[in-house]
Amino acid sequence: MIGDFISLRILLLSEAVMERNLIRRGAALASFPVDFTETGNPDEACQKIARDQIDMIFVDAALPQAARAMVITQARAAKRRPFVFLVAANREAASTLAGNEVDGVVAWPLNLRDAEVLFGRCSRTCIPHRVLVVDDSLTVRNIVRKVLEASRYWIAYSEAAEGVAAVRQIEGGRIELVFLDYHMPGLNGIETLQAIKHDHQNLHVVIMTSATDSAVAELAHRAGATAFLKKPFYPADIDAILHRLFGLQAMH
Q1: In angstroms, rounded to a whole number, what is the distance separating the alpha carbons of residues 208 and 193?
Q2: Per-residue confidence (pLDDT) for residue 250, from 0 to 100
Q3: Are the CB atoms for 7 and 53 separated by under 8 Å?
Q4: What is the pLDDT of residues 64-106, one digit of tens each?
Q5: For residue 99, which phi and psi values (nearest 5 degrees)?
Q6: Residues spanned by the domain of 150
Q7: Rounded CA separation 193/167 (Å)
Q8: Percent of the chain, pLDDT > 70?
Q9: CATH code of the domain containing 120
Q10: Distances from the Cα of 101 to the Cαs of 67, 68, 70, 104, 145, in angstroms?
Q11: How far is CA 222 from CA 102, 120, 218, 219, 247, in A?
């Protein structure tokens, strides 16, 4: 471990020798420890997934559909499910093949700099992300905490029961993401969001509410909310937001 960081175990499945070489060289230049394995054999890849705790898998989109499906199925069955990305000449080519089974698509890096950027984004899966949950209900905070703990990301959880306390925590810590209830006594969600954005324009804030009124979502977005979640929500909803925020669903 280096500070809050754990080495990243990456598996690349591809028969493309030149592309594999570039990815391997990029992994060697990464600013964090990478345990990198490459193979062109889907059976060998499945054995590796079953035997080791893989963090991220790159699957060549040029492989036969049956080979891709076998590896993706093995990844989904793993006790600790790895992130899986299809890799192709460009994201558009991979997107035509990607379904709900994979986390996103990525283009082959064209040079070492591209490979370095790619591994920098990959590192987001092993860094603890400091998340603040703001809700006046202890019950709701406990529920949200359990949902966050079930996320595939590493969440460092903290909480606040109202808006003023939330703003104070943000001032004193390194919060990356706030899940903020819309209906609260004192400062409501929108007022708290505005107070946060006044001094922390780049801080991501997700508004939570049980309301079905689309006007609430529109108001939240106008005030600077990154996303809007309707209660109840689930770990997959959290993962989708974090994928987008950390650049993992749009890697290129």
Answers
A1: 12
A2: 44
A3: no
A4: 989 999 999 999 999 888 989 888 887 666 666 655 578 877 8
A5: -130, -160
A6: 129-245
A7: 9
A8: 90
A9: 3.40.50.2300
A10: 14, 11, 11, 9, 25
A11: 32, 31, 6, 5, 23
